[in-house]
Every structure is written in C-alpha cells, then in structure tokens.
Amino acid sequence: MPTPEKTSFSRIVAAGRDLLEAGGQQGLTMQNVAERVGVRAPSLYKHVGNRAALLAAVAEATVDDLVARLESTDGSIEGLARGYRQFAQAWPEGFRLMFSAGAPPEALARVAAPVLHASRQLVGERDALEAARLVTAWAAGFIKMELAGAFRLGGDVDRAFEYGLVGIRRALAGDH
Amino acid sequence: MPTPEKTSFSRIVAAGRDLLEAGGQQGLTMQNVAERVGVRAPSLYKHVGNRAALLAAVAEATVDDLVARLESTDGSIEGLARGYRQFAQAWPEGFRLMFSAGAPPEALARVAAPVLHASRQLVGERDALEAARLVTAWAAGFIKMELAGAFRLGGDVDRAFEYGLVGIRRALAGDH
DNA sequence: CCATCGTAGCTAATTATGTTAGCTATCGAC
DNA sequence: GTCGATAGCTAACATAATTAGCTACGATGG
Predict the structure, then answer these.
(1) Neighbour tally for B65: CB within 10 Å
(2) What Å value separates CA B123 and C1' D8?
(3) Sorted alphabetically, which Pfam families does this protein's record hold (chains A, B) (predicted)?
(4) CB under 7 Å from any atom of strand C: which residues?
(5) pLDDT per residue as tens digits for the range A82-115
(6) Which residue is nearest to nucleotide D20 (CA to C1')?
(7) How far is the CA of B46 from the C1' of C22 (A)?
(8) pLDDT band at B39 (very low <50, low <70, confident <90, very high)
(9) Of the residues A5, B53, B74, B170, which has the fewest C-beta atoms closer than 10 A?
C-alpha cells in the first residue's frame, strides 16, 4: 500500500448507512461521508466509484442485515413478516433504499429465498412463486405505506398488520 | 396582471409530469421545466415556491388522475386492483412519486376511499379499515415490486397478480 | 540501504443545479 | 395618462458531484 490508508471501503459504507438513517438520502452527501471517515471528498473516489455505487453498496449491506434478521426467525410466514417489519422500523431509510436505489437484483433474490421456502411448505411447489409474491408484496406494501405515513386515517396500525397476516394465511390455506 | 403571463402553474405542473415520465425525478429539473414552458428557470419561482412544492403538485395531479381511473371501474376489489395496476404501468414515475415525495396526506385519503368502500361491502363496517389496508398494501406492494424489476426470477407476472387477487378475495371472504 | 513505483490523499477547478437579489417592462385600475 | 403591482429577466451565490494533476509515503527489489 502507498500512503497509509486513512479509511476503507467498508468504513465508507458504514458511514453512509449512518448518514442515511440520520438524514435520509439527502443527508448522504460525499462531503458528509468524507468528513465522517476523516478524508476529503475527492479521496472517496479512490474507494468507491461514485455516489450511485455507494448507494448501491449501502443497499446491499442493508440487504445482508435483513437476510440475517429473517434467518433468525422461525421461518413461518408470520415470523418472516414480523421480522421484515421490525427491520424496516429499525432501519427505515435503508429499507426504502433497498427498493428505490439500484439494489443488485441478486441481493433482492436473497431476501426472497426464505419467503419462497415458507411458501413452498404451505402451497406446494407449483404455486410457491406466486404465493411468495403475494406474501412479499403485501408485507413490503404495508411497511412502505406505514413508513410513508399513509396510515394517518386512524385505526391501530399494529392491529391492521396482524389482521393482514391472518388474511394472508387464509389466502394461502385453502389453496393447493 | 402585469407583464402578460407566458406560463402558468398548471402548465408548469403538466411540464413536470411529462419530464418526470420521460426522465424520472432526475430529469425533472427546474431548468428543464422552464425550457419546456418557455421561460427562464428563476421565473418559475413566481409560480411554484420551489422544486419540492412542484414535486408535491405533480404528485397531487397524479393522484387526481388515479382517483378518476379508479372511479371508472366497477368498484369491485378486482376491478380496483387492476385499474390501480394499469395506471401504474401507464404512469410509472408518477406512481412512484405518489408515495416517495410529500404527497399531501389528504390526497392519499382520496385514493383510499374507493377501496374502503369496496372493503366495507365485503367485510362490514367493523373491519373495513383493516381490510382496505390489506388490499391496498398488497396491490401497492405488488406494483412497486413490478416497477422496481423485482420480479426477474421468472414466472408469469400477470399470473402472479391474478393469483394474488384470488388470494386477497379469499382472505376477506371467510371473515366477518 | 537505497532507488523506484504504485497509489491514497490532497488542492484546485469544472459542471450542474437550486435558489435569491434586484431590475425592467407591461397591464389593469384610477 | 399615470401609477402600482408583478412576471420575467440577468447576474450572482451556494451546494454538490466529480475530474485533473500533484505529492508524499511505504512496500519492493536490487
């Protein structure tokens, strides 16, 4: 190595995640990241390519965490859905980024795997993909609406989530 | 009025919508909007406040169109969901904006109304709000994943949508 | 032990964009 | 016909991303 490295790719990504949660995508500027890791902004380009690549890396790191969170559940539809939601509440900006920014498709596939597995158990091989898409769409949609503040019309959001979960199970129950 | 107006709020919003669909949020710059309506960028501020306000106005106009589209359906869960999806495919960027940008909560409520009505018919007053949230979350989630290209793992997306629709109806059927 | 080479970081500069300040010209009201 | 309000304009500024080119340091090979 030349001049001793004052930072590294992984530190930069970590700083990016912090800033993202603290100030949204707007707060994640190259300047802010640089300041946080202790270099000047142009030096980041020795490690990162550009801001879009950094966002993608942040998204991918977030996916990794989400996958770990899902793997720590009991693998049931309910467990996965609740884990999904808890993760989104803990890392709301990262969760948003996963879908908006160019998260590598490969990464999204990793998130899908546990849901696909659970669906296969429930409805069999033939409809597993469609069932997984039903579950994932509902969970992702619910959570994003919750994060977007679209549930301001009163009612208990937790209750709505559990109600939906019961409905989703019923949707898949009488199937195969 | 002073100096004859060369543009107007509604023209600016219309230009914003065009640019949004053509080039995403990135393509919607004040410069581009100004050029399209035939003035210089700073003149836009005589009509619009700032870019965020313009995005909000574009979002609201999009909501208006969506509501009109939904009101032209038969009002069933299936009709609403398909209308929702068709609208999103016709105006993908506007659809995305509706949730991401600061769409006025009042506007989102207007979209919710037809779904709420259909849900009430199906499950009764007590659970109508929860049921509507189930339907809306699934549809919005499905469509956003479709737009995000999250369905690259093979399978027929249309079939998955119809499968989901059957499931959602079953979820609400055995309820009340 | 020294010469060399590759590279992380730096400063300076460029570009793009949003936004503000201040001027001007024109239209409607009196 | 004069006057006031204001849409649009040019010029300027702030912030951000990014590029160009330099520098210094440390690993490596003689």
Answers:
(1) 14
(2) 57
(3) TetR_C_33, TetR_N
(4) A 1-3, 5-7, 34, 39-40, 42-43, 46-47; B 1-4, 28-31, 41-42, 45, 50-52
(5) 999 999 999 999 999 998 867 788 888 899 999 9
(6) A42
(7) 15
(8) very high
(9) B74
Q: Which bases along strand D come within 7 Å of a protein CB atom?
A: 4-12, 15-21, 23-27
One-letter amino acid at A45 equals: Y
For B24, other C-beta atoms within 10 Å of its C-beta total: 13
**pLDDT tens, position by position, B142-158:** 999 999 888 887 889 99
A chain contacts of residue B102, beta-carbon cutoff 8 Å: none
Mean pLDDT by 10 residues, chain A (176 residues): 82 98 97 98 98 97 96 97 98 93 80 96 96 97 91 90 98 76
- B101 φ, ψ (degrees, to nearest 5): -70, 170
Q: Which residue gives the smallest C-alpha to C1' distance to C29?
A: B1
Tokens of A63: 């996916």
Q: Identify the weakest region by mean pLDDT among A106-115, A167-176, B3-12, B69-78.
A: A167-176
Q: Average pLDDT, stretch B74-101?
A: 95
Contact B160/A129, CB-based, under 8 Å? Answer: yes
Tell whether B170 is within 8 A of chain A (Cβ). Answer: yes
